[in-house]
Design brief:
Layout (H helix, E strand, L loop, with lengths): L1 H22 L13 E5 L2 H11 L3 E5 L14 H8 L3 E4 L8 H8 L4 E4 L7 E2 L21 E2 L6 H18 L4 H27 L5 E4 L5 H7 L2 E5 L10 H14 L3 E5 L7 H7 L2 E5 L9 H16 L1
Parallel strand pairs: 1-2, 1-3, 3-4, 7-8, 7-9, 9-10
Antiparallel strand pairs: 5-6
Helix pairs in contact: 2-5, 3-4, 5-6, 6-10, 8-9
Length: 309
C-alpha cells in the first residue's frame, strides 16, 4: 500500500514538472536559413499590417476570414493546429478579440504574444452616445468600457504597426533593416492617404450625421465628421423601440441627412431611414473583404463624402 502511494506521488511530481516546463518554455526562435516567420493573427487587418512590415520574411494566417467582427468567435481544432507552430501570435486587444487568449494558452508560452493595442489611448465605448440608454436596452459586449475599434484613426494604426515591427525584430534581429524599411514605406503611404482623404472631407459644409453602429468613433473624430448620436453603445446589441424613437426625434430636430451603418449588418439602420428620410451609408467596420487597410479608409471616406455633398 505504501509502495503504491509512493509511486503515485512520484508520478504526480513528474507530471507537475512536465506541465511547468511546458508553460515556461522560452519564446520561439527563428531559423534564419531562409525559413519564414510563422505568424497567426486574429483578424485580416492584422494580417495586412504584418505582411506590410514583414514582407517575404513572414507567413501570416488570420483566424477570422473576411470582414466580420466576430467578437464572440469560438476557436476550433483547426485554429488550435494553426497556432501550434506559430512563432508570433497577434491580437487586436482592448477586449475586441478576447477569444484569441484561448489559443495563446494552448501555445503554452512557446510563442511571442503581442497585443497590437499597446500604447493606444482608447475612447470610451459610448464616446458619441449623447443620450442615455433606457432600461430596455440589452448589452452584449462590454469591451471593458473602452471602444476597441481604434483602427478608424490612422494614427493608431501607426502605433499598432510599430508594435508589430518591434515584435518581428525581437524574433528575427537579422531582419531589422528590412522590417524598418518596410514599416517606413507603409507609414509614408498611410500618412499621404490620410492627408488626401482629410482634404476631401474639408470640402463638405455640413458633416452632421447619426451612427447606428458603435464601430466608428475613432474614424469620425479623426476625419471631422460631427456624429450627433449613436444608437448602439457597444457592438451587436439589442436596441429597444424606445431608443430608436429617441434617435428618430434627434435626426428630425437636427436636420440630419445621413445615418451610418455597417456593410456586414446592412438592414439595421433601415428603420431610421424609413422614419426620417435620411440616407443610409454603410461602412466597413474593420476592413474590406481583402483586409487592405488603406483601401478601407478610401472606401469609407469616399462613401461619407458622396452622401454628405
Amino acid at each position: 500500500m505504501k509502495r503504491a502511494l509512493l509511486i503515485g506521488m512520484i508520478t504526480l511530481i513528474i507530471v507537475i514538472i512536465g506541465v511547468y516546463r511546458l508553460a515556461y518554455t522560452p519564446k520561439a526562435t527563428v531559423n534564419l536559413s531562409g525559413e519564414k516567420i510563422k505568424v497567426t493573427v486574429s483578424i485580416p487587418l492584422l494580417k495586412y499590417l504584418t505582411e506590410q512590415i514583414g514582407g517575404d520574411r513572414v507567413l501570416v494566417e488570420s483566424i477570422i476570414k473576411g470582414a466580420a467582427c466576430s467578437h464572440d468567435y469560438e476557436p476550433g481544432t483547426g485554429d488550435m493546429r494553426q497556432v501550434a507552430d506559430s512563432a508570433l501570435l497577434i491580437k487586436v486587444g482592448l477586449d475586441f478579440d478576447h477569444w484569441f487568449d484561448k489559443l495563446v494558452e494552448i501555445r503554452g508560452g512557446q510563442a511571442l504574444y503581442l497585443d497590437a493595442s499597446r500604447g493606444i489611448q482608447p475612447l470610451p465605448d459610448d464616446e458619441d452616445h449623447e443620450h442615455g440608454m433606457d432600461e430596455g436596452t440589452e448589452h452584449h459586449h462590454d469591451h471593458t468600457l473602452s471602444n476597441p475599434h481604434y483602427w478608424g484613426d490612422p494614427g493608431n494604426i501607426k502605433i499598432a504597426a510599430n508594435n508589430i515591427l518591434q515584435a518581428l525584430v525581437e524574433l528575427c534581429p537579422d531582419g531589422q533593416e528590412s522590417f524598418q524599411a518596410n514599416y517606413d514605406r507603409f507609414v509614408a503611404k498611410l500618412e499621404q492617404t490620410a492627408v488626401e482623404l482629410k482634404k476631401q472631407v474639408q470640402g463638405i459644409k455640413s458633416r452632421k450625421i447619426v451612427s447606428y453602429s458603435a464601430a466608428f468613433p475613432y474614424f469620425f473624430r479623426y476625419f471631422g465628421f460631427n456624429n450627433l448620436g449613436t444608437v448602439e453603445t457597444t457592438c451587436e446589441q439589442e436596441i429597444s423601440p424606445k431608443r430608436l424613437m429617441e434617435m428618430v426625434k434627434l435626426i428630425k430636430e437636427q436636420g440630419v441627412t445621413v445615418v451610418v451603418g455597417e456593410e456586414i449588418y446592412p438592414q439595421l439602420p433601415d428603420v431610421l431611414a424609413k422614419e426620417t428620410g435620411a440616407k443610409v451609408v454603410l461602412l466597413w467596420p474593420t476592413t474590406v473583404e481583402s483586409g487592405d487597410y488603406l483601401e478601407t479608409l478610401k472606401t469609407n471616406v469616399e462613401k461619407m463624402v458622396s452622401a454628405l455633398q
